[in-house]
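Quick one: structure tokens for this chain, please?
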Amino acid sequence: MPATQPRISTGHPLAETLIKFWDEGRFGTSLEEACRYSNISQESLFEEFGSEDALRAAVLELYRTSVFMGLSEILLAEKNFEEVLRTYLTALIQHGDQTCGCLLAEYRLIQQSLGHTSRESVSQFTDSLRSLYKAWLSRAQVAGDIRDDIDLETAIEHLDAQIMIASIKARRGMAKEQIRRNVELSLWALRPHLSL
């Protein structure tokens, strides 16, 4: 991330609220709701961060460092493809008894309508995520866990799309077992007879 990346200190009242909500699996919390809960006006935050665009970028960076780093460790685990996928998908779509999803997936959906700073943050975060996918899929191909006759970039594109869809479906409240079955079926292209 560039040195100019907007950041929210973890001690900031908004950060404390967002992290609390995220720890509870409430990833769909709007900035407006978080501001109300924290007793902070959105206008004062826009002034503090310079713009709504910079504030959105700062929230995404907070999510990356406080939530997503744990998910990325799953992708780096030296385990077979199916085991990593099962663990990653569960962590991504489920929090306790509720489905949750991923804030990055939501930002990617609206990326073109975001301001320049937050659009750049989404692009950089997505590039980092796809690098993790590349390392994971490359290990899986070498180990014979997934088909080796599929171009790695095509495999990354397919996996990324399926995980993003799963995350969005989770955020919209689809049952986790249905999401799991959908991912299982869609990723048979990489690993026939995948069982999650």
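The chain has a mean pLDDT of 86.
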